[in-house]
Fold each of these.
Amino acid sequence: MATIKDVAKRAGVGVGTVSRVIAGSGPVSADATNRVRRAIAELRFRPSHAARALPKGQSQTIGVFVPLVHGAFYTPILHAIYATLREHGLHMVVDFGRTLETERQDALAGAEFLTDRGCDGLLIMATALKRADIEHIAQLQPKFALLNRSVPQFRANCFGPDHQAAGAAAGRALCAAGHRRVAVIEGPARSSDNRLRIRGFLEALSECGIDPDSVPREQGDFSPESGRAAAEALFARGRNFTALFCANDEMAIGALAAARQAGLAVPQDLSVMGYDGIDLAALTVPPLTTVVIPWRQIATHALHHLLNLCYGMNLPVPPDVPAQVLYRESVARIA
């Protein structure tokens, strides 16, 4: 396959001249332009996106890192990012991690990988990054935005929900429905956003007169399988609770499966509430009550901020909409 250097050699010009002809900008004589175009045709050379972008000093590409690319959570976020970039004639390179356990190392390696690929800016979703990690990323590529991570020193670069307030909304909703005996399936302890939503949830229970220390808790890893296993462990300890709050919808879906297997009717015997508001939550049996986090909006706002930094655009970056509880049939009101 012919390269830009092959074209330059055939046309008897420098690589820079070939780049300017490809980009259609910059001073190039008519004779040199004709020779370059003839060489391109003879060699059947197909200019790469990078070659076309060389004279501009930009790749017209945004690097995106997400911890995982499977499941019902990350895919809609990636699609929102992709749609916005395509709307502006831009592209993305995506890197992703192996497991949530290796998220921090994967995110740092991903930032280096995407920077080495010449991305004009980085959009990184990783809750495990420490302040020193973010400082390192800022040195690699000063134009970056963080999804679902809040660090005071980089406040302008951070975009995400108020997880503590969202968790509190879940706790107040269950209390308002009359539940006083509540259990929890939480996510990984290392996850900062998990800790915040559980903290908010337990604080809201405390405001309702429920002792947080009396709340049965099991830990999952945000997967449906872990939600099912955690629910089974809670049932094995004695089902002395009327409602179950799960720290994400996928674990709640696993918990619904465990409840059916145990012969429990939802919501007659047990109310179940999730968190995130993924599309799949509307299709469970019964449809899942959940705390809706406007992730597509948040991702789009973060990307707008990044495009403004990278390309001098003036895209809107409005304040994020607060999370809201979406009531469906999986939560019952009790006396």
Note: The two ends are 74 Å apart (CA to CA).
Amino acid sequence: MAYAESNDIMNHFIQHIQSLPDLMGTLLPRFVAEAGRHVDTLPRRLHLIGCGDSYFAALATELAFESLARIPTEAQNAMTFSRYAAEFAPLDADTWVIGISVSGGVSRTIEGLVRARARGAQTWAITSSEQTPIARVAERVLITQVPDLPNAAGVLVPGSRSYYASLLMLYALALQLADLAGADTHTWRKQLADAVTWAEQTIQCNNEVAADWVARTLEAREFVLCGSGPHFATASFGAAKIIEACGDPATPQDVEEWAHLQYFCKVADTPTFLITMRERDASRVAEVRTAMQAIGRRVIEVSPAAEAELACPACPELLAPLISGLPLMLFAAHRAERLGEPYFRGFSGGRSVEGGGGISRIRTSEIVA
């Protein structure tokens, strides 16, 4: 899918979203080959760790590792793993700890690998270069370098291309491990390749619909995004894009937990995204949607269902994170444009882009080893 390349494009986020199918088609064979070259043994256990989008990529692919390769897998944010699990979880040479960091400089994820290696686990980094700080502390490295887009020069855009690179490498790794475990992955490899077409279709059929939902919810000042299993990862990613692009509070929530918590929130018409492939979660999603509507929520379903407000092709549930996050990004991009909001608050109000956030010290935080 070609994307516009003229300098008069103002919505750089839309440009990045539209570039994703081409990017997927370019990166997928490269990453499959990379995983094939570097992965020749099977772990007994897996820990996937990261921060922000990297953590969401870990959550999104946890099901793929467990269902395809049949390896017990735990996706955790880097702080939880490093300061808690790395001290008490069973870690040994048959356990792999995979740190995901596109920049390769996030202190907490680096710390997680340092502490896991000290406990005897095998450490891997999924990062953009062999020269990044995280690559230098890991024993094995898988490279996810993503080319820049020329039109976005000087504009820091909410992450999408880097997130998709992490997702694709994790799926390629899961398939490689499944092959080593003796599974037949032919169909899954074809379906992963088909995701390029599914992504293009999803962008084409949802761009105007997402813009319409922006117009219908323009006055809203908070959003809730619900999903379970891999769809909770998509809900988390979608909430992050709304926050990054627009600055609006956006809360990801598990479908079941919504019924225990957000069901009692007092603002009746809060726009609430419901992300599902109508598979394992189908019966509960139907019940919760009825409850949402009964108390006045504006429900925006993202699914292949005929009545879904934002549609995506029916695809295997474990590959859904490659597809169902696209309408959420389109929504965030159109809302930021309609409201005239600068991405990341323009790093104003005491924020700084320096060092990954200045005072937040994402990349300069003390590493406790």
Note: The domain at 12-193+355-360 is CATH 3.40.50.10490 (Rossmann fold).
